[in-house]
Design a protein that fits this description.
72% of the residues lie in helices and 0% in strands. With 369 residues, it is mainly alpha-helical. Helix 5 crosses helix 14 (353-365), helix 7 (169-197) crosses helix 10 and helix 10 crosses helix 13. The protein is globular. The termini are far apart.
Length: 369
């Protein structure tokens, strides 16, 4: 059989093509004309429709959270007042019977204390922040101090305020450390000045703890320092952030102390705060008839705050107890000393508590905090 006699159907598809004719294109199924809008992929075409319900849901979920954050300070303030009804009632009753002019002077010293705290906060930070908002944040921080002990509420509010102002977290945290160090150091220096100038320091010897009690306290403090040192030496994930924080704090401290205006604001405000607080106590004691000279009242306030200020207690309850004890040791009657301390706490903390909570809620709603 010759090659020409082979049937065409028995040849392969490639042999049926002519060498001169181009290969036929593969069959294409009929497709409708594609519009520019339909040329998008199904994922991109449905992306706006799929994102819309997610955004609505996230906004609806964020509203209760934001409302809860705004109402939390008010609820905490009301709960604290209800839990301490006898103390609040006794303090308010005694204050209503006191001399109003001395109480107004105490309120003025309390307002100046917030200004001094704002100056010290600004002095501890190289960056400049709005002074009005900084003063409002310090006023609102007083309400937060009743929730967390040891001044942690005020520090948390300040860190949040600095973060919203664009200050990096290491620098904001370092400013808190420098502020706390300057505040405690300045208070100790002011106490030493009053101890050297006032002869009433001899009465403080009766308030010192027994020597047998100092030994276990020193052992506990040494053990805590040793444990912290071992943890920082052994645990590397803990050592790195602490080392970075210390470096940032030292760098910011050098930068701050290179500016005279920052030095004056930091140390001037830190030294003015205990004096203004003690002046408010002097005014309350004069309004209630405490019967002690003003220098002894200031010395009692500084001694009690320095000795017990490190004890973490909400609202400064440990400082109040030590202050009553110190005033009694200086010669005041127990009832008068208790009334003076209660009146001081009402004037400086409890009276501004509700306005401070309102300001805190307003700052949260305005996204300042």
């Amino acid at each position: 059989m010759r090659k020409d006699d082979v049937p065409v159907s028995s040849l392969s598809p490639l042999s049926s093509l002519s060498p001169l004719s181009p290969p036929a294109p593969p069959p294409v199924s009929p497709v409708a004309p594609v519009s520019p809008a339909s040329s998008l992929s199904p994922v991109s075409a449905t992306c706006p429709e799929s994102e819309a319900p997610v955004r609505r849901g996230s906004l609806m979920a964020a509203r209760p959270v934001r409302l809860g954050l705004c109402l939390a300070p008010l609820l905490l303030a009301v709960g604290w007042a209800l839990a301490n009804r006898p103390v609040v009632y006794d303090g308010v009753t005694r204050l209503l019977a006191a001399d109003p002019w001395w109480l107004l002077a105490g309120i003025a010293f309390t307002c100046l204390n917030w200004v001094a705290a704002s100056c010290a906060r600004q002095g501890a930070l190289p960056d400049r922040v709005p002074p009005g908002l900084l003063l409002a944040s310090q006023f609102a921080a007083g309400a937060a101090n009743h929730v967390l002990p040891g001044g942690l509420g005020a520090h948390a509010v300040t860190v949040r305020f600095l973060r919203t102002r664009g200050v990096p977290l290491p620098r904001a945290t370092a400013s808190i450390g420098l502020y706390s160090l300057a505040k405690s150091s300045a208070k100790t220096l002011v106490l030493l000045v009053f101890l050297a100038a006032s002869p009433a320091w001899r009465r403080l010897a009766d308030l010192l703890p027994d020597g047998r009690l100092l030994v276990p306290l020193a052992a506990v403090a040494g053990g805590v320092l040793a444990v912290v040192g071992v943890l920082l030496t052994v645990v590397r994930p803990l050592r790195r952030p602490v080392t970075g924080l210390v470096r940032s704090a030292l760098a910011d401290a050098r930068e701050v102390h290179g500016r005279p205006c920052r030095v004056l604001a930091l140390w001037g405000g830190a030294a003015a705060m205990p004096l203004l607080q003690a002046s408010a106590l002097v005014c309350v004691g004069s309004a209630l008839g405490l019967g002690l000279p003003w220098e002894q009242v200031v010395l009692a306030f500084l001694a009690a705050g320095t000795a017990v200020g490190a004890v973490p207690s909400p609202g400064g309850l440990a400082v109040d107890a030590a202050l009553v004890w110190t005033l009694v040791a200086f010669g005041a009657e127990p009832a008068a000393a208790t009334a003076a301390v209660i009146g001081y706490r009402v004037l400086t903390d409890w009276l501004p508590l509700l306005p401070g909570a309102l300001v805190l809620s307003a700052l949260i709603r305005a996204k300042v905090l």
